[in-house]
Amino acid sequence: MSEEGTREPEGPHTPAAVPQRPAPPQRVEYVLAPGLQLLDLAGPAQVFGTAAEASGRGWAPSYIAEAATVLSHQGLPLRAETEWQPLHPSDLLVVPGWQVGGQRRPVPLGAALLDRIAAHHAQGGTVMSVCAGAFALARAGLLDGRRATTHHALQDELARLHPTARVVRDVLFVRDGRILTSAGIASGIDLALDLVAQRMGSRLASRVARAMVVYVRRNGHAPQESVMLRHRDHVDDLVHRAQDLIDDRYAESLSLTLLARELRVSERTLTRAFSRTLGTTPLRYQQSLRRERAQLLVGAGADSETAARAVGFRDARMLRTLRRRSGGITPP
């Protein structure tokens, strides 16, 4: 099999079952602070709302605050609930950022909301912040000893005020267990798309991205970068459809012949389109997806053999070989 296909050079095999994705949240609760940045809220809300419409599953929004009306930094008043409903561990809690500087406090949230953020994580829930929202997570005690990021203009302040937090600089977003933090403003969209991909698959995430016209994955050096999103900065429909198929079935032995047949084009046409648009081949694209997924599994505690088999490799040898070729660090 030549490199123009997507079957691994080790030969046919039956990969181990891929671990099931976590279910999408039944509810996404947004904590609204005075002076919040509208895009910090609207970006993730649009991603999750579009995912809900496209899938018919989960992501129902709710908005809470200490006052019924919250004035955004842009001057738009927002309505919020002040009688808070109990959260389930499967729910997602999102803390959008706010304007920092001048006379504003670093965290314009009271003790009750900070306690709610901490309690949700303590009961097994996932907490996400955008921009200055990381300061609320730190005040709630969730960043002690954890990796986190925020807007580049606020990184020094976060590190100064919360020295136990491990501030990761100049990246789009950081995942540390069930604590998700993103950088300034529009990076909340990147993190939200990544979360959709993790919970509901890359195909849905790519559909949401296309609906929002946000193909570009900024900052290719982000440690938590997504292969799927990093290679979506184009408008070639054939390559998008090929990526959808590979993203959804990356653990399978997909041959170039099979891909071309399902896409109803010739193998030559598909190979040329991939090379012209992405500068790579379907095989290498699939291998990148597998390496990334294996790295996530190793980071979650799996050994390299288990991770390799789960993503479709016969064993860890191929994974190690590909990691060396790409200049990556081989998992233990």
TrEMBL record:
Ranges for region Disordered: 1-24
Matches recorded under InterPro entries: Class_I_gatase-like, DJ-1/PfpI, Homeodomain-like_sf, HTH_AraC, INH-QAR
Domain annotation HTH araC/xylS-type: ranges: 240-332
Protein name: GlxA family transcriptional regulator
Keywords on record: Transcription, Transcription regulation
Membrane-spanning residues: none
Keyword Zinc: no
Organism: Brevibacterium salitolerans
Highest taxon listed in the record's lineage: Bacteria
PANTHER family registered for this protein in UniProt: ARAC-FAMILY TRANSCRIPTIONAL REGULATOR, HTH-TYPE TRANSCRIPTIONAL REGULATOR RV1931C
Composition bias, Basic and acidic residues: 1-11
Keyword Ligase found: no
